[in-house]
Amino acid sequence: MDYRNAFAVSAAGMTVQKLRLDVTALNLANMQTTRGVDGKPFQPMRVVVDGQVSAFANQFDRLASGGTAALPQVRIETMNVAPRLVLDPGHPDADERGYVSLPGVDHVGEMVNLSGALRTYEANVVALNAAKAMAQKALELGGGQ
Where is the Flagellar basal-body/hook protein C-terminal domain (predicted)? Predict the structure, then answer.
């Protein structure tokens, strides 16, 4: 068995979850941002994983025959959500009625996303450590002759 595939799958999973954490942190950090550098309001973003993940049996057959694991394609896209209107007549970006348009970041949804990304990252670390332990044990067994 080629353990590099197991390492690659875990590494890809950790990379995706790290990106989810970064995007979630960016969304939360900009919850109160009325304008960006370009003068436009901040739009929340999300990580989208594109992957025509085949059935487990197909993946297993590919790995068993010496192939490589199919890794997902990841992109970040801007969410098209309506801004939150907050009454703050003294704010420099308030409109004529006194409302300020803040990004439509869903705080609770972002926290759920954060928690899920952390747990998934941890699961990938556990899988990586299990593959590492199996590789070490195989080396110990094979080296004893």
Answer: 97-141
In a domain, 84, yes or no: no
User: Two tokens at 130?
Assistant: 């299990």
Quick count: other Cβ atoms within 10 Å of Cβ 3? 13
Q: State pLDDT tens for residues 71-123.
A: 678 899 999 999 999 999 999 999 999 999 999 999 999 999 999 999 999 99
Domain count, the chain: 1
In 3D space, the residue among 116, 113, 121, 115 whose CA is nearest the CA of residue 23 turns out to be: 113
Rounded Cα gap, residues 140 and 116, in angstroms = 36
pTM: 0.78
Backbone angles phi, psi at 128, to 5 degrees: -65, -45
Within a domain: 27: yes
Cα separation, 41 vs 101, in Å, equals 8
Taking phi first (over 0 means left), then psi (-120 to 50 degrees means alpha), and beta for anything else, what does residue 19 get?
A: alpha
Q: Is residue 90 part of a domain?
A: no
